[in-house]
Amino acid sequence: MEIKYVIDTHIQADHVSGGRNLSKVTGAQYCLHSSAKVDFDFSSVTDGQELDLGNVTVKVLHTPGHTPESICLLVTDKTRGPEPWFLLTGDTLFVGAVGRPDLPGEMHESAGQLYDSLKEKLLTLPEALEIYPAHFSGSVCGAGMSGKPMSTLAFEKRWNPSLNLDRTAFIEKTTSTIPPKPVEVESIVRINQGRG
Fold first, then answer.
1. Which residues, in sequence order, are CB contacts of 129 under 8 Å at separation 6+?
2. What does DSSP assign to residue 161?
3. Which residues make beta-bridge pairs with 86?
4. Cβ contacts of residue 26 below 8 Å, gap of 6+?
5. Taking a C-beta distance cutoff of 8 angstroms, is the pair 66, 13 a contact?
6. Of 96, 135, 150, 169, most Cβ neighbours within 10 A?
7. How do beta strands 97-98 and 93-94 pair?
8. Domain covering 47-179 in this structure, CATH number
9. C-alpha to C-alpha distances, 91 to 11, 15, 36, 136, 165, nearest whole angstrom
10. Alpha carbon 7 to chain centroid distance?
11. In this predicted model, what pLDDT tens digit does every residue of 45-86 receive, in sequence order?
């Protein structure tokens, strides 16, 4: 099987990404959202863009909030049917929680963007969609995450406490329940931006 794309859903703050190294080893395109602020070349992806992988298509959804360049990846396996099968949510939506909005800086503005991304992009998708977040319980990338590694959109709509709040309450909740920042966050971000 040929690896065509290596995609980071955002610039990581809790670990050094191996994406660029994997791209070099495999010859695959290393992809980030077009708004990513990094000091190296990458293949730019944009909202609504579809990546063709034969029987599989991956649609890019720009979902700012956790970080400005955050994306989710909507996957359709055409051998199963025309409807999307699952969503890789990165750090935008977790099982039982949502991503933290404080790492890029302007916490309240980022929380509002996260709310908009969830309501306008993700919660409008088919409810049977499976979701696979980048982290689960134990990660410092969100508060209140479940230990389950996956869920469905319908389950999250019903049981994820953040998804049933209005915008004001969502911003208040997500900005007041933030875990401590990851250790060495600034140096990790600099490395992942190609600056360290």
1. 84, 85, 86, 87, 152, 153
2. G
3. 75, 130
4. 3, 6
5. no
6. 96
7. antiparallel
8. 3.60.15.10
9. 10, 13, 15, 10, 19
10. 11
11. 999 999 999 999 999 999 999 999 999 999 999 999 999 999
pTM, to two decimals: 0.92
- Integer Cα distance of 105 and 62 in angstroms: 19
Digit-coded pLDDT (tens) for 94-103: 999 999 998 7
Query: In whole angstroms, what is the distance from residue 187 CA to residue 196 CA?
Result: 7
**What span, in angstroms and rounded, lies between the C-alpha atoms of 36 and 7?**
12
Q: Given a cut of 60, is residue 104 above it in pLDDT?
A: yes
Q: What is the DSSP string of 170-181?
A: HHHHHHHSPPPP
CA distance 17 to 39: 15
| Amino acid (1-letter code) at residue 153 | L
Cβ neighbours, 10 Å, residue 83 = 11
Are 131 and 85 spatial neighbours (Cβ–Cβ below 8 Å)? no
123 within 8 A of 153, measured Cβ to Cβ: yes
Q: What is the DSSP letter of 157?
A: H
Helix or strand holding residue 116 (H, E): helix 107-117
Q: How far is CA 34 from the centre of its chain?
A: 15
CB 61 within 8 A of CB 119: no
